[in-house]
Specification:
The chain is mainly alpha-helical. The protein contains seven helices and two strands, in the order H-H-E-E-H-H-H-H-H.
């Protein structure tokens, strides 16, 4: 693999996620998701494939549903983690909210995907055997890093964010 191909991979993963989200937007589950989230409060954050906008929290959730909705999104095979379905919507929403550049969004996305994939790899796909959905547990660590990076958190604050993600993943 050349350096150019390696550097392009995260962009391809995000494009794949965006394409799947657009395809998902034509299905009933997508319209029901947007309708349900729209009942909470108004917001201005975009949702892929929809003219509707939602609060940041709800737009990230909706975009995650759209990216994973057809189950064609990427999977880190060793960890059995769908990293892009969590990390891409988080990077997109957090970059939008913080008015950060595409380069900043890409950097944060790579950081989050790397963290989620490495944590998933350590678990070796065994989370499913224990009754946990690896994406929901593992990707939270990557998403915390993504949001923190785009918000400009310090190293110490990023470490604290990982502790919060851990406490949530552990159910405490």
């Amino acid at each position: 693999v050349t350096g150019v191909q390696t550097c392009a991979l995260p962009i391809y993963l995000m494009l794949d996620g965006a394409g799947i989200a657009c395809a998902s937007s034509t299905f009933g589950f997508a319209r029901r998701t947007i309708a349900a989230l729209s009942t909470f409060e108004a917001g201005a954050c975009p949702v892929i494939g929809f003219a509707d906008t939602l609060p940041l929290r709800d737009a990230v959730l909706a975009n995650g549903v759209m990216v994973h909705g057809l189950d064609f999104d990427d999977t880190h095979l060793t960890g059995v983690v769908h990293v892009t379905s969590s990390c891409f919507p988080t990077a997109l929403g957090a970059a939008w909210a913080a008015q950060r550049s595409g380069r900043d969004m890409l950097t944060a996305y790579v950081l989050g995907v790397e963290a989620a994939a490495r944590i998933g790899k350590v678990a070796k796909g065994e989370m499913n055997q224990l009754g946990f959905h690896p994406t929901g547990v593992v990707a939270a660590f990557g998403c915390a890093l993504i949001a923190g990076k785009l918000e400009g958190l310090t190293r110490e604050q990023l470490v604290m964010a990982q502790g919060i993600a851990l406490s949530m993943a552990a159910g405490t």
